[in-house]
Design a protein that fits this description.
Helix 4 packs across helix 7. The protein is built from 20 helices and twelve strands. The chain has one domain: Myeloperoxidase, subunit C (Orthogonal Bundle), CATH 1.10.640. The strands form six sheets. Strands 1-5 form a two-stranded antiparallel sheet. Helices cover 33% and strands 6% of the residues.
Length: 623
């Protein structure tokens, strides 16, 4: 087994890596499995190269490879899948024994190191990260079969495939000892077999479009997009509640269940099915619904001859562009560091985007199932409500209202919650998740079964999807080789490196998520060098492999220079000002109050509303 891993390292060293200013790990020598789906199962797609607008599912962005980046196509692997036997069973350690249990790893490495350290960033940074994640990745568990996977573990060989990887709870578990439970529910992820494309090793599909295109607002297929439209004046469907406040439409339901939770009154419908997951993401989805309809009203006023379709599509591409700009201007530099993002070609101010038709845009599996997931470590325990006079009103646990978003429709709760996210310091990045999501995820959804642990689930999901071990991905990123536990002392806190030695048989066994969480963050970054490498690779693809990226020129849907300048001037503060009753918003929107860079100057919402100007979209033609 050890010889096998050494051969993997040697082969990785032979890869043709991109230049430093192009941090794309994937190359033509990367896994052949990336092309398997497209050779055997991809549908034939007919494209209109003159179309000004994106398709909803992401197809035809690349005119030579029409299915690249579209919904329900595979994640991109940077390294071949690693399974025991090569197909779908979890890998084993170099000594042939099973890997340490995810909950065992959590209890020994992460359970007692959670700290309430305050960050230089506020809670909006975390929430933008989740909002963005729902635009570019969706890999749900296989929901078929028994409702409770723990309940069928005594069936021996009759255990359904999707239930064969439940998380075992140790007998001495510090949280669950009193419950006398030994099993935490876990379902294996949906594979390509559910899409009429059986492949081995397992292939995992991305069920959103794989571009930053606001699919979480509009949907990733034609039918979902149509169901969210009014087909009048370019507007999205909405519902008016107290005092005329506008919210997302209600999901059509046959009962009071909302995403698995019983007795829920309000259950929203939006482009992404996770809209109700917590109060923060539900707030963002409602804000962007309102923002769409706000812009539609302005475009209709200056272009009365435009059809419903043209207004809708123009607003859709405007909002997609704004999400791209905020992500590349504010979010990415905050996560991986301003200097590194510039060196990696991710600054939208240092250079214009030149579309690369040879670059595969697909969301990386190492990105979606590992590097981006470790940002769960900045999710706070609570969300605060703060009123317009900056007074604390109250707080809710982040887990209390999961899949129960009706709180934000009461009174001024939406404004209080958004203000609270602005004026509350976020959770400092650290090698742990907060206590609630580490032990009591979906507590109110399934009170009769073991609570879920997000950190244990993230570790198990990495194994489920066949992610390579930590050391392999470090090699892929051209970082210093890890050949012994002693090599970890230079990149991790020494005590944590020693704990790994007690848990794993070999340094070659360490899980990717575990290694990334324990790496010491790079200067100016929230993550260590391995996660930073994979994140940069992903965001490079989302920019340069997108024919419709906001500043790409020479395409039917390219924005004019004047339009680009208008778009670059819009940030989250502007959006909140025109969509809520907030009186002011921060200029340094993701910065926490008191930070040395934080600007005490605020945006006065009355002035923002008066300055709204979309005249750059004025047209004398019907279309």
């Amino acid at each position: 087994m050890l010889d096998f891993w050494l051969s993997i390292v040697q082969s990785l060293l032979l890869l043709n890596y991109a230049t430093a200013h192009k941090p794309v790990v994937y190359s033509v020598q990367s896994p052949r499995s990336n092309a398997d789906y497209y050779r055997t199962c991809a549908p034939r797609v007919r494209c209109d190269p003159q179309s000004k607008y994106r398709t909803f599912n992401g197809s035809c962005n690349n005119l030579e490879h029409a299915s690249w980046g579209s919904s329900n196509t595979p994640h991109l692997r940077l390294v071949d899948a690693v399974y025991n036997g090569g197909e779908r069973e979890f890998r084993k350690q170099v000594n042939g024994l099973p890997l340490p249990g995810p909950r065992e790893l959590q209890n020994n490495l992460f359970q007692d190191v959670s700290n309430s350290w305050f960050d230089d960033y506020n809670v909006h940074l975390m929430e933008w990260g989740q909002f963005l994640a729902h635009d570019i990745t969706l890999m749900p568990p296989d929901g078929s079969g028994p409702a409770d996977c723990c309940a069928v573990q005594n069936q021996l060989n009759a255990i359904p495939y999707q239930c064969r990887a439940v998380i075992r709870i140790p007998k001495d578990d510090p949280v669950y000892t009193q419950t006398r439970r030994n099993c935490m529910p876990f379902r294996r992820a949906t594979t390509s077999s559910s899409f009429n494309c059986a492949q081995l090793p397992n292939i995992f599909m991305v069920q959103t479009s794989q571009y930053i295109d606001a699919s979480q607002v509009y949907g990733s297929n034609d039918s979902m997009a149509a169901s969210l439209r009014t087909f009048r004046d370019g507007r999205l469907r909405s519902e008016l509640v107290q005092n005329g406040q506008e919210f997302c439409p209600q999901r059509r339901r046959m009962s009071s269940v909302c995403d698995g939770r019983q007795n829920v009154g309000v259950c929203y419908d939006a482009g992404d099915p996770r809209v109700n997951q917590n109060l923060g993401i539900a707030s963002y989805q409602n804000v962007f619904l309102r923002f769409h309809n706000y812009i539609a009203t302005h475009l209709q006023a200056i272009n009365p001859r435009w059809s419903d379709e043209i207004i809708y599509q123009e607003v859709r591409r405007i909002i997609g562009a704004i999400i791209q700009i905020i992500t590349y201007k504010e979010f990415i530099p905050s996560v991986i560091g301003k200097r590194f993002s510039e060196e990696a070609g991710l600054s939208i101010y240092n250079s214009r985007t030149v579309y690369d038709k040879g670059l595969m845009s697909s969301t990386g599996l190492e990105f979606a199932a590992a590097a981006y997931r470790i940002l769960h470590n900045i999710i706070p325990t609570q969300l605060n409500y703060i009123d317009e006079s900056h007074r604390y009103v109250g707080a809710v646990n982040i887990t209390d209202f999961m899949n129960m978003p009706g709180q934000i429709q009461i009174g001024s709760n939406l404004e209080y919650l958004l203000t609270g996210m602005s004026e509350t310091s976020g959770r400092k990045n650290q090698p742990s998740y907060n206590n609630l999501i580490s032990n009591f995820m979906f507590h109110f959804n399934t009170p009769d079964t073991a609570d879920s642990s997000l950190i244990a689930t993230d570790i198990q999901r990495g194994r489920d999807t066949g992610l390579p071990p930590y050391f392999v991905v470090r090699q892929q990123c051209k970082l210093s080789a890890v050949k012994s536990f002693e090599d970890l002392l230079a990149i991790m806190v020494p005590n944590e490196a020693k704990l790994l030695k007690n848990l794993y048989a070999s340094v070659y066994d360490v899980d990717l998520v575990v290694g990334m969480l324990l790496e010491i963050p790079e200067q100016g970054s929230m993550v260590g060098p391995t996660a930073r490498c994979i994140l940069a690779d992903g965001f490079y693809r989302f920019r340069y492999a997108d024919r419709f990226f906001f500043d790409v020129q020479g395409q039917p849907g390219s924005f004019t220079q004047e339009q680009q300048e208008v778009l670059k001037g819009i940030d989250v503060g502007h959006i909140l000002c025109v969509t809520t009753k907030m009186r002011e918003a921060q200029k340094e929107f993701f910065r926490a109050p008191g930070h040395e860079i934080y600007s005490k100057q605020t945006l006065k919402c009355k002035e923002v509303k008066n300055m709204s100007n979309f005249s750059a979209w004025r047209s004398n033609t019907r279309n």
